[in-house]
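2024-03-11 09:14:02 DEBUG pipeline.ingest accepted 1 chain
2024-03-11 09:14:02 DEBUG pipeline.ingest length=315
2024-03-11 09:14:03 DEBUG pipeline.predict start
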Amino acid sequence: MRAFAIAALILFSAAAAAQGYPNKPIRLVVGYPPGGSGDFTTRLIADELSKDLGVAVIVENKAGAGGSIASEFVARSVADGYTLLNQGNHAINKSLYKDLAYDQKDFSPVCRVAIGTTILVVNNDTPFKSLQELVTYAKANPGKLFSASAGFGSAPHIASVAFESAAGIKFTTIQFKGGGPASISLLAGDTQVMFATSPTVTGFIKGGRMRPLVVSMRKGSPSIPGIPGSEEAGVPFESTFWFGLYAPAGTSPEIVKRLHAAAAKGLAKPEIRDRIAQQGMDASPSASPEAFAAEIAAEAPVIERSIRESGAKVE
């Protein structure tokens, strides 16, 4: 009887907390620095959450280790709905890192935010005008092309490994703490090639400061017109990414549903969808937290197999 009473009290307290939620600022953590798609989607959804929930949603960048630093921080946070994470599928880092201090079970999935692709760009001083020219050079000069990467486990890192495997080439990859620093390296000529998320390099491409060769989708992307897909470019491969909201495991289902409703409402707005499309991504809110969790679980073994077969690893 006493155990039943305690359980009832816990459920009542959780329900009461959910009814008053939120009543203070929310912290939304992202594992990448300013300048890339992770930061872009985080700040965009933070604004929309703030509008609907009526409290400030403060973005906090905790860059490093492909988002693992941020993920571990949120996994260890109090499960009260006031610390959230914007990140991709945790199966990526699980496949790349040997000793992660967290797992998917440490999170309550809330809502997917956006899906995107990556773009292979080259420094303007390189002679490559097509993907085939780059591949021909790389095969004749293994390891001589330096590739700037947004960090181990990042979408650009996975795309680069998939491309190298499909093309039968090998770059000398330099890992940076995010797409912004990697872009600076490419612009400076310290590196010659780079896979990047669209928000990271769209401005540079439009300004003529770097040259795009391919998007990491077989048929190309409607959100990124004018750049060939991998089949058209002659090296068929595909590597996409997404970002989504998570809360720490144990967060009240009522709070998770409230967060999902706020996120989905914001992502349904035409002007928000347009802003995301302008960055080369597509708004893609999950139908429900449960649907998001099912999508993550279904995708995990595919990710793990792809990374294993590609040979990608943290060195």
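2024-03-11 09:14:41 DEBUG pipeline.report The radius of gyration is 20 Å.
2024-03-11 09:14:41 DEBUG pipeline.predict end
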